[in-house]
Write a structure and sequence with these properties.
With 648 residues, the chain is α+β, with helices and mostly antiparallel strands. The chain contains 24 helices and 27 strands. It binds ligand ME8. The site of ligand ME8 has 19 residues, from strand 1, helix 1, helix 7 and strand 11.
Length: 648
């Protein structure tokens, strides 16, 4: 391990809603790394916190009729309480409304300005409040929707200060090139490189349309501007160490790893290093971007109401079992679907059968044959092959953890358990003891104890309490010293005496939670959660029948369907409505239907809409559909009808 200081961070979470399983995932990965770094004796600083400024937060508070600061206090406290309940070993919980943080952000603004990296201009563009980002017209979906979250953007024209991001394009590319592991997993680095090679625009870093943010330093005498939330938020990684105030902890900088979800990679892999270059600070060693947790294959989102509540799951299945599951189940960087079935399988199989049973077998055999005594001094004499095999596995482990390949780490860590279980089956201690091979039998128990001891040390960062119980059963404590002795120096365990104990992982036969109950109850007032279409229906105006008949609705058959490549939402359809040629319809239904499944099916078409252009393609009609929190479905005739049949 080359570096003796380890600074590990999570994103700071927005206080517009309470934590869900995705937030828990990032935090648990970071906690695991921090615990591991401490165990191997590194001076470690683990930071988490909340991101509290910006229009989104201001609006969330307003919707609930609360004062913004009071609202931020309340949600920030909920995050902190959850992490405390989850025993997250953070060293600091930062809030962007902390006075020191705000001072640090102001200092950074001044430093960047003095470097010539900030200038004032006017900005006019499409702004997504949800992502707090401007997008050029060319990147919008269907000319108006955010390419990242799909929500409607609004046109904003503002006087703004700009950061000269374009100036850093070459240095950024150099950084990615010279540091192949700066972005993990490595495949994500290529995405970032392609994006930066496409050209960087200067970045608007102040806003005048609202004032819930950090003000500019007084010397600018420009009170209507507040800092852009992402400048404010990213700076937390250094203000937490005292940047701009008391810089005593700045020797933890640069970060060993910033853990984030892939949704915020661009901010961390492009803006953040560019800001750091401007501030003349070193760049982080790694930015680790993990994938999404989904539910039944769909991304979790509040509007879909499919967000899993991590506390419910941890309370029902055990916090540490949940930690193990999350880290083992999904390769870092990939998406993972949350299901209770998969969680139960991991608990019963990996934890119960492989790990828990091994400890039971050791306790059983040692009490039956040796009144509970276990000695390890003869292990090498009788089981050298197994010890060598064990070492091969252990040697592979450490690199995985800081390459963030935690699933591989855990997979490899289970091999020693297989070695132990196989050795019992192979040497059959019950036969050996009958044959009078007492020494060999004791040594076999010693081998199992050795394996369990090493596995519990290496698993400690993932399952701190469980492994403490295992270590106690083996007569030792998990500390950096014991790690050093047993893992690094290969010292053997002192003799100990086992005691009978309850199984560590009682078998779970069926799902412990109702499917619905694990999903977070929606916090927002009901109306706000309704999709746009539904909200509009609430204010519907009455019309006469003659107005209704102005709309020409017809039965159509989809004869061709293809994906619109650059769009997340659109399909290009040819719909036969009994005319001389099919109508071309561009429909925003790609999230719910594949092109193939649509061909040959019938739909209801609005046939007298003025043609419109969507992403440059002519659309000559619209399909009727219904959308609620479960998604969208097309409205179809109950029985097949001739194409062109009017609907009334
Ligand atoms: O983006 N699966 O905050 P945020 C996995 N304040 N991880 C998920 C997830 C999911 N379905 N949903 C959320 C912000 N996450 C900014 C960050 S940092 C300087 C500022 C996790 O509350 C994941 O870590 O929207 C993601 O990056 C983070 O929550 C976003 O949290």
């Amino acid at each position: 391990m080359s570096c003796h200081k380890s600074y590990i961070t999570t994103p700071i979470y927005y206080v517009n809603d309470v934590a869900h399983i995705g937030h828990a995932y990032t935090t648990i990965i970071a906690d695991t790394l921090a615990r591991y770094a401490r165990l191997i004796g590194q001076d470690t600083f683990f930071l988490t916190g909340t991101d509290e400024h910006g229009q989104k937060i201001e609006e969330a508070a307003k919707k609930r009729g609360k004062d913004t600061q009071a609202y931020a206090d309340e949600i920030s406290a909920k995050f902190r309480e959850l992490w405390d309940e989850f025993d997250i070993s953070y060293d600091k919980f930062i809030r962007t409304t902390d006075a020191d943080h705000m001072k640090g952000v102001q200092k950074a603004f001044s430093v960047m300005y003095d470097r010539g990296d900030i200038y004032k201009d006017t900005y006019s563009g499409h702004y997504c409040i949800s992502c707090e980002t401007f997008f050029p017209q060319t990147q919008l979906v269907d000319g108006e929707f955010c390419p990242d979250c799909g929500k409607q953007t609004s046109i904003v024209e503002e006087e703004s200060y700009f950061f000269r991001l374009s100036k850093y394009q070459d240095r950024l590319l150099e950084w990615y090139r010279d540091n192949p592991e700066c972005i993990l997993p490595k495949s994500k680095r290529n995405e970032v490189i392609r994006f930066v090679e496409g050209g960087l625009n200067d970045l608007s870093i102040t806003r005048t349309s609202f004032d819930w943010g950090v003000k500019l330093p007084e010397r600018f005498n420009d009170p209507k501007h507040v800092m852009y939330v992402w400048l404010d938020a990213l700076m937390n990684y250094v203000t937490a160490l005292g940047y701009g105030t008391d810089e005593a902890k700045m020797d933890f900088w640069p970060a060993r790893v910033h853990l984030i979800g892939k949704d915020i990679l661009r901010f961390h892999a492009i803006y953040w290093p560019a800001f750091l270059m401007s501030l003349d600070l070193p760049l982080p060693k790694h930015i680790g971007a993990h994938g999404w947790w989904t539910r039944n294959g769909e991304k979790m989102s509040k509007s879909k109401g499919n967000v899993v509540n991590p506390k419910e799951v941890a309370d029902a299945y055990g916090l540490e079992n949940f930690r193990y599951f999350m880290l083992r189940e999904v390769p870092f960087g990939g998406d993972g679907d949350f299901s209770q079935r998969a969680l139960i399988d991991r608990i019963n199989s990996d934890l119960g059968n492989d790990l828990g049973n091994l400890l039971n077998r050791l306790i059983g055999m040692s009490s039956k044959y040796f009144e509970g005594r276990v000695e390890c001094d003869l292990v090498e004499k009788y089981y050298k092959t197994e010890l060598d095999e064990l070492q091969v596995s252990l040697d592979k482990l450490e690199p995985y953890i800081f390459e963030l390949q935690l699933h591989r780490y855990l997979e490899e860590l289970w091999r020693p358990l297989t070695i132990a279980n196989r050795a019992i089956d192979k040497y059959q201690p019950w036969t050996m003891i009958k044959e009078g091979k007492t020494e060999e039998t004791m040594a076999l128990n010693g081998l199992i104890a050795t394996i369990l001891a090493k596995v519990s040390l290496m698993l400690h960062a993932v399952m701190p309490k469980t492994t403490t119980v295992i270590a106690n059963a083996l007569g030792f404590e998990i500390t950096p010293e014991s790690f050093n002795k047993i893992i690094r120096n290969g010292e053997i365990l002192e003799p100990f005496v086992t005691q009978k104990r309850e199984p560590l992982f009682p078998r779970i036969e069926e799902q412990l939670l109702e499917e619905k109950s694990i999903e977070e109850s929606k916090e927002e007032p009901k109306k706000e959660n309704k999709p746009k279409e539904e909200k509009e229906a609430d204010n519907i105006a009455l019309i006469g029948i003659e107005q209704f008949f102005e709309v020409s609705l017809k039965i159509g058959t989809i004869v061709e369907a293809q994906e619109v490549k650059k769009s997340k939402k659109l399909l290009l359809l040819q719909v036969d409505i009994g005319e001389d040629r099919p109508r071309q319809v561009v429909a925003g239904i790609k999230e719910w239907y594949s092109a193939d499944e649509l061909v040959g099916t019938q739909v209801c078409v609005v046939a007298n809409l003025k043609p419109a252009k969507l992403m440059g393609m002519k659309s000559e009609g619209m399909l009727l559909a219904a959308k609620d929190s479960d998604g969208l479905c097309l409205i179809r005739p109950e029985k097949p009808k001739a194409v062109g049949t009017p609907i009334s």
